[in-house]
Prior knowledge:
Nucleotidyltransferase, domain 5; Hexokinase, domain 1; 2 domains; five-stranded mixed sheet
Amino acid sequence: MMILAGDIGGTRSRLALFVAGEPAARFEQTLPSRDYAGFAAMLSSFLELAGRHDHGRIEVAAFGIAGPVQGEGDAARVQATNLPWTLEAATIGQALGGARVRLINDLIAVGLGALASPLDRRVNLNPEATPATGHAAVIAPGTGLGEALFFHDGDRHHPMPSEGGHCDFGPNDEREAALLSYLRGRFGGHVSYERILSGDGFSSLYAFARHAELGRPTPGADGQLSAASDPNALVTQWANRGEDECAVIACRLFARILGAEAGNLALKSLPTGGVFIAGAIVGHIMPFVREQALEAFLDKGRFATMLGRLPLWVVADGNLGLAGARRLAEQEMDSTRVER
């Protein structure tokens, strides 16, 4: 059976055709999302390109997209968060000649991709943990902060979406308390974990480090940041090269707070199958994650021993959204075979 999987982003979208049992895509394209008036136009363009290769009829399709999914199955629809698009499973299915279509939130797609990732694509931050099968938790910094739980029924994982990234940030020491006070002033009140553990969080943490005079910035920092197309990426580059003390402090804070929130998520869900820190961002600050995250994850007082038994995985892969969409499509394909 031919499968279509998609990772729909505000800037770029990746679409790929797979055949069940084959590891590599038969055909794949990355398309600029904002060049299309809607998803239907993008899909039509992709299908035209794919048709030149005569891949056959698509039986099942699944797409991960940023936005809340309303309804289930063929009745599912998503209003995209970062695009003026609305995706409807039934309409997409008709465009695909009657294919079964599933829509999922992009974080759920990332989580499914992380859970299916091979061991050689993961980093284990907690070598003393006891690997086991069971419920899992995923935390993924990106444009925002995604958090989700995955219930295990003894056979497969079922996603349980959340908006946990918007929970109140809780400081764990005097520096983090000062950070909270600074961010409350910066954002006019409520400070969520997403304000810190996201792409823009690096700029906020860097600004705090400079405001609190925690280190020396690199010469000409203001001009470089103003000229940069992505100031957040510049902060991480400075930190990795050790060129800017404030950037180093910002990345240490990011990694430590990420580990602490991963521990909070673990306490709330008891994921014996492990906690997964997922997405491309953590790969850019991996030395700091290795240095800071586990200690903060375990810093839970009387429950440190219990958390010490849980695997803490890092899957720093920018392809997880597409891999997760493919996994969902394959699950739907299996269900279709059972029904037949």
